[in-house]
Amino acid sequence: MKVSAIIAAAGRGRRMGGKQNKQFLRLGNDMILNLTLQQLDQIEEIKELIVVVGASEVKFCLEEIFAKGNFQTPYRVIAGGKERQDSVRAGLAVLSHTTDYVLIHDGARPLITKELIKNALKTAKEKGTAVLAVPVKDTIKVVDQEGYVKSTPERATLRAVQTPQIFRKDLICAAYEKAEQTGFYGTDDASLVEAMGVPVFLVEGSYENIKITTPEDLLLAEEILRRRSKCG
Ligand SMILES: Nc1ccn([C@@H]2O[C@H](COP(=O)(O)OP(=O)(O)OP(=O)(O)O)[C@@H](O)[C@H]2O)c(=O)n1
Ligand SMILES: C[C@](O)(CO)[C@H](O)COP(=O)(O)O
pLDDT tens, 109-160? Predict the structure, then answer.
Protein backbone atom coordinates (compact mmCIF):
# COMPACT_ATOMS: atom_id res chain seq x y z
CA MET A 1 0.00 0.00 0.00
CA LYS A 2 1.62 3.28 -1.11
CA VAL A 3 0.14 6.29 0.63
CA SER A 4 0.82 9.99 0.16
CA ALA A 5 -0.09 12.19 3.12
CA ILE A 6 -1.29 15.73 2.46
CA ILE A 7 -1.12 17.88 5.58
CA ALA A 8 -3.34 20.96 5.30
CA ALA A 9 -1.65 23.65 7.37
CA ALA A 10 -2.17 26.82 5.35
CA GLY A 11 -5.06 28.30 7.35
CA ARG A 12 -4.99 31.72 8.96
CA GLY A 13 -6.31 30.58 12.35
CA ARG A 14 -8.79 33.46 12.65
CA ARG A 15 -10.76 31.75 15.44
CA MET A 16 -7.55 31.31 17.41
CA GLY A 17 -6.71 35.01 17.17
CA GLY A 18 -3.12 36.22 17.20
CA LYS A 19 -0.87 36.99 14.26
CA GLN A 20 0.90 33.69 13.83
CA ASN A 21 -0.42 30.63 11.94
CA LYS A 22 -1.76 28.51 14.84
CA GLN A 23 0.15 25.47 13.57
CA PHE A 24 3.42 27.16 14.56
CA LEU A 25 2.25 27.76 18.15
CA ARG A 26 3.78 25.63 20.89
CA LEU A 27 1.95 22.78 22.56
CA GLY A 28 3.91 21.42 25.50
CA ASN A 29 7.54 21.45 24.35
CA ASP A 30 6.89 21.29 20.64
CA MET A 31 5.31 23.08 17.71
CA ILE A 32 1.78 21.92 16.82
CA LEU A 33 2.67 21.13 13.20
CA ASN A 34 5.79 19.22 14.26
CA LEU A 35 3.74 17.07 16.66
CA THR A 36 1.31 16.26 13.84
CA LEU A 37 4.10 15.38 11.40
CA GLN A 38 5.92 13.20 13.94
CA GLN A 39 2.87 10.92 14.16
CA LEU A 40 2.57 10.57 10.36
CA ASP A 41 6.32 9.98 9.97
CA GLN A 42 6.04 6.76 11.99
CA ILE A 43 3.70 5.05 9.51
CA GLU A 44 5.55 2.83 7.10
CA GLU A 45 2.79 2.83 4.44
CA ILE A 46 3.17 6.62 4.12
CA LYS A 47 5.75 7.15 1.38
CA GLU A 48 5.65 10.95 1.19
CA LEU A 49 4.58 13.90 3.33
CA ILE A 50 3.19 16.85 1.39
CA VAL A 51 2.95 19.75 3.80
CA VAL A 52 0.83 22.67 2.62
CA VAL A 53 1.46 26.00 4.37
CA GLY A 54 1.05 29.69 3.56
CA ALA A 55 3.32 30.95 0.73
CA SER A 56 5.30 33.07 3.20
CA GLU A 57 5.72 30.10 5.59
CA VAL A 58 7.39 27.55 3.27
CA LYS A 59 10.95 28.60 4.18
CA PHE A 60 10.16 28.74 7.91
CA CYS A 61 8.65 25.26 7.82
CA LEU A 62 11.66 23.80 5.97
CA GLU A 63 14.15 25.46 8.31
CA GLU A 64 12.40 25.16 11.66
CA ILE A 65 10.72 21.78 11.30
CA PHE A 66 12.38 19.65 8.63
CA ALA A 67 16.00 20.86 8.91
CA LYS A 68 15.90 20.41 12.69
CA GLY A 69 14.00 17.11 12.68
CA ASN A 70 15.04 13.63 11.69
CA PHE A 71 12.24 12.68 9.33
CA GLN A 72 12.31 9.20 7.78
CA THR A 73 9.67 9.93 5.14
CA PRO A 74 10.47 11.94 1.98
CA TYR A 75 8.75 15.32 2.20
CA ARG A 76 7.94 18.46 0.32
CA VAL A 77 6.57 21.76 1.54
CA ILE A 78 4.35 23.75 -0.80
CA ALA A 79 2.14 26.85 -0.73
CA GLY A 80 -1.61 26.46 -0.16
CA GLY A 81 -4.61 28.49 -1.24
CA LYS A 82 -7.45 30.64 0.08
CA GLU A 83 -9.69 27.85 1.41
CA ARG A 84 -8.75 24.48 2.90
CA GLN A 85 -10.02 22.82 -0.29
CA ASP A 86 -7.64 24.97 -2.39
CA SER A 87 -4.74 23.91 -0.18
CA VAL A 88 -5.59 20.21 -0.47
CA ARG A 89 -5.94 20.66 -4.25
CA ALA A 90 -2.42 22.10 -4.36
CA GLY A 91 -1.23 18.96 -2.57
CA LEU A 92 -3.06 16.65 -4.98
CA ALA A 93 -1.37 18.41 -7.90
CA VAL A 94 2.09 17.27 -6.76
CA LEU A 95 1.30 13.66 -5.75
CA SER A 96 3.84 11.01 -6.62
CA HIS A 97 2.76 8.97 -9.68
CA THR A 98 3.29 5.71 -7.81
CA THR A 99 0.86 6.51 -4.99
CA ASP A 100 -2.36 4.48 -4.70
CA TYR A 101 -3.96 6.08 -1.60
CA VAL A 102 -4.14 9.67 -0.35
CA LEU A 103 -4.39 10.44 3.35
CA ILE A 104 -5.48 14.00 4.10
CA HIS A 105 -4.90 15.36 7.59
CA ASP A 106 -5.30 18.76 9.27
CA GLY A 107 -2.00 20.18 10.51
CA ALA A 108 -4.07 21.45 13.43
CA ARG A 109 -4.87 17.93 14.73
CA PRO A 110 -1.63 17.08 16.57
CA LEU A 111 -3.22 14.50 18.92
CA ILE A 112 -3.72 11.93 16.18
CA THR A 113 -2.15 8.58 17.09
CA LYS A 114 -0.32 5.88 15.18
CA GLU A 115 -3.04 3.36 16.15
CA LEU A 116 -5.87 5.48 14.71
CA ILE A 117 -3.94 6.04 11.47
CA LYS A 118 -3.08 2.34 11.10
CA ASN A 119 -6.68 1.29 11.69
CA ALA A 120 -7.98 3.81 9.14
CA LEU A 121 -5.42 2.66 6.54
CA LYS A 122 -6.54 -0.94 6.97
CA THR A 123 -10.16 0.07 6.35
CA ALA A 124 -9.24 2.27 3.36
CA LYS A 125 -7.52 -0.72 1.78
CA GLU A 126 -10.71 -2.78 2.10
CA LYS A 127 -13.31 -0.11 1.29
CA GLY A 128 -11.49 2.52 -0.81
CA THR A 129 -12.42 5.24 1.70
CA ALA A 130 -11.93 5.69 5.46
CA VAL A 131 -12.83 8.80 7.42
CA LEU A 132 -12.37 9.15 11.17
CA ALA A 133 -15.50 10.11 13.09
CA VAL A 134 -17.01 10.04 16.57
CA PRO A 135 -20.66 9.91 17.70
CA VAL A 136 -22.04 13.37 18.45
CA LYS A 137 -22.54 13.91 22.21
CA ASP A 138 -24.86 16.95 22.13
CA THR A 139 -28.33 17.25 20.69
CA ILE A 140 -28.03 19.07 17.35
CA LYS A 141 -30.61 21.56 16.02
CA VAL A 142 -31.09 22.69 12.44
CA VAL A 143 -31.96 26.41 12.51
CA ASP A 144 -33.41 28.97 10.13
CA GLN A 145 -31.83 32.35 9.42
CA GLU A 146 -33.74 34.04 12.27
CA GLY A 147 -32.49 31.52 14.82
CA TYR A 148 -35.67 29.43 15.11
CA VAL A 149 -35.29 25.66 15.27
CA LYS A 150 -36.40 23.94 12.08
CA SER A 151 -35.72 20.35 13.15
CA THR A 152 -33.86 18.07 15.56
CA PRO A 153 -32.12 15.23 13.73
CA GLU A 154 -32.00 11.94 15.58
CA ARG A 155 -28.69 11.99 17.44
CA ALA A 156 -27.97 8.31 16.94
CA THR A 157 -27.54 8.99 13.21
CA LEU A 158 -25.04 11.85 13.65
CA ARG A 159 -21.24 11.71 13.61
CA ALA A 160 -18.62 14.43 13.98
CA VAL A 161 -15.96 13.87 11.36
CA GLN A 162 -12.25 14.33 11.87
CA THR A 163 -9.11 13.71 9.89
CA PRO A 164 -7.29 11.69 8.62
CA GLN A 165 -9.61 11.13 5.69
CA ILE A 166 -8.18 8.47 3.37
CA PHE A 167 -9.23 7.73 -0.20
CA ARG A 168 -8.10 5.70 -3.18
CA LYS A 169 -6.13 8.13 -5.32
CA ASP A 170 -8.42 7.85 -8.37
CA LEU A 171 -11.50 8.61 -6.21
CA ILE A 172 -10.17 11.71 -4.49
CA CYS A 173 -8.63 13.09 -7.68
CA ALA A 174 -11.91 12.62 -9.57
CA ALA A 175 -13.84 14.21 -6.68
CA TYR A 176 -11.60 17.28 -6.67
CA GLU A 177 -11.86 17.53 -10.46
CA LYS A 178 -15.67 17.40 -10.31
CA ALA A 179 -15.75 19.99 -7.52
CA GLU A 180 -13.65 22.31 -9.66
CA GLN A 181 -16.07 21.91 -12.57
CA THR A 182 -19.20 22.47 -10.44
CA GLY A 183 -17.74 25.12 -8.11
CA PHE A 184 -18.64 23.00 -5.07
CA TYR A 185 -16.83 23.81 -1.82
CA GLY A 186 -17.10 21.47 1.16
CA THR A 187 -15.73 21.78 4.67
CA ASP A 188 -14.07 18.38 4.41
CA ASP A 189 -12.70 16.10 1.69
CA ALA A 190 -15.29 13.37 2.14
CA SER A 191 -18.08 15.74 1.08
CA LEU A 192 -16.46 16.04 -2.38
CA VAL A 193 -16.41 12.26 -2.74
CA GLU A 194 -20.03 12.07 -1.49
CA ALA A 195 -20.99 14.64 -4.16
CA MET A 196 -19.89 12.09 -6.80
CA GLY A 197 -22.32 9.56 -5.33
CA VAL A 198 -19.50 7.35 -4.00
CA PRO A 199 -20.13 5.82 -0.53
CA VAL A 200 -17.76 7.05 2.16
CA PHE A 201 -16.97 4.71 5.05
CA LEU A 202 -16.52 6.09 8.58
CA VAL A 203 -14.10 4.53 11.06
CA GLU A 204 -13.81 5.09 14.78
CA GLY A 205 -11.96 8.31 15.62
CA SER A 206 -11.22 9.60 19.10
CA TYR A 207 -12.65 12.41 21.24
CA GLU A 208 -9.00 13.29 21.92
CA ASN A 209 -8.24 13.87 18.21
CA ILE A 210 -9.37 17.48 18.49
CA LYS A 211 -8.70 20.23 15.97
CA ILE A 212 -6.93 23.15 17.60
CA THR A 213 -9.38 25.87 16.62
CA THR A 214 -9.89 28.24 19.57
CA PRO A 215 -7.67 29.06 22.61
CA GLU A 216 -9.57 26.61 24.89
CA ASP A 217 -8.51 23.78 22.58
CA LEU A 218 -4.87 24.52 23.41
CA LEU A 219 -5.54 24.04 27.13
CA LEU A 220 -7.34 20.76 26.56
CA ALA A 221 -4.64 19.51 24.17
CA GLU A 222 -1.92 20.35 26.70
CA GLU A 223 -3.74 18.34 29.35
CA ILE A 224 -4.14 15.34 27.02
CA LEU A 225 -0.44 15.48 26.08
CA ARG A 226 0.59 15.74 29.75
CA ARG A 227 -1.51 12.69 30.60
CA ARG A 228 -0.13 10.72 27.64
CA SER A 229 3.47 11.51 28.60
CA LYS A 230 2.82 10.35 32.21
CA CYS A 231 1.32 7.09 30.93
CA GLY A 232 4.42 6.59 28.74
N1 LIG B 1 -6.75 27.96 3.25
C2 LIG B 1 -6.62 27.00 4.16
C3 LIG B 1 -7.47 26.94 5.29
C4 LIG B 1 -7.28 25.93 6.22
N5 LIG B 1 -6.28 25.04 6.03
C6 LIG B 1 -6.01 24.03 7.06
O7 LIG B 1 -7.13 23.21 7.27
C8 LIG B 1 -7.17 22.77 8.63
C9 LIG B 1 -8.55 22.95 9.24
O10 LIG B 1 -8.92 24.32 9.17
P11 LIG B 1 -9.26 25.28 10.38
O12 LIG B 1 -9.06 24.69 11.68
O13 LIG B 1 -10.55 25.89 10.05
O14 LIG B 1 -8.05 26.30 10.25
P15 LIG B 1 -8.08 27.81 9.85
O16 LIG B 1 -8.72 27.98 8.52
O17 LIG B 1 -6.66 28.24 10.01
O18 LIG B 1 -8.98 28.42 11.03
P19 LIG B 1 -9.98 29.64 10.98
O20 LIG B 1 -11.18 29.16 10.21
O21 LIG B 1 -10.25 29.92 12.42
O22 LIG B 1 -9.27 30.79 10.30
C23 LIG B 1 -6.09 23.54 9.39
O24 LIG B 1 -5.04 22.66 9.69
C25 LIG B 1 -5.74 24.63 8.43
O26 LIG B 1 -4.39 25.08 8.50
C27 LIG B 1 -5.46 25.08 4.91
O28 LIG B 1 -4.57 24.25 4.75
N29 LIG B 1 -5.66 26.08 3.99
C1 LIG C 1 -11.84 18.61 7.81
C2 LIG C 1 -12.38 18.89 9.19
O3 LIG C 1 -11.33 18.92 10.12
C4 LIG C 1 -13.30 17.75 9.60
O5 LIG C 1 -13.82 18.02 10.85
C6 LIG C 1 -13.16 20.15 9.25
O7 LIG C 1 -14.32 20.03 8.51
C8 LIG C 1 -12.38 21.37 8.88
O9 LIG C 1 -13.29 22.46 8.96
P10 LIG C 1 -12.86 23.93 9.23
O11 LIG C 1 -14.05 24.75 8.89
O12 LIG C 1 -11.73 24.18 8.30
O13 LIG C 1 -12.55 24.02 10.67
Answer: 999 999 999 999 999 999 999 999 999 999 999 999 999 999 999 999 999 9
pTM more than 0.90: yes
CA 37, CA 30: separation in Å to the nearest integer? 11
Instruction: Give how many domains the chain has, as a whole number.
Output: 1
- Among protein residues, the one whose CA lies closest to atom 12 of ligand 1: 213
Atom of ligand 2 nearest to the CA of 211: 3
CA torsion angle for 104, 110, 114, 115 (degrees, to 10)?
-90
Residue length, the chain?
232
Q: Which amino acid is at 192?
A: L
Residue 188 lies in a domain: no
| Distance of CA 108 from the midpoint of ligand 2 (Å) | 10
With respect to residue 138, please indicate whether it lies within any of the assigned structural domains.
no
Q: Is the predicted ipTM greater than 0.85, yes or no?
A: yes
Report yes or no on 98 lying in a domain. yes
pLDDT tens per residue across span 80-108: 999 999 999 999 999 999 999 999 999 99
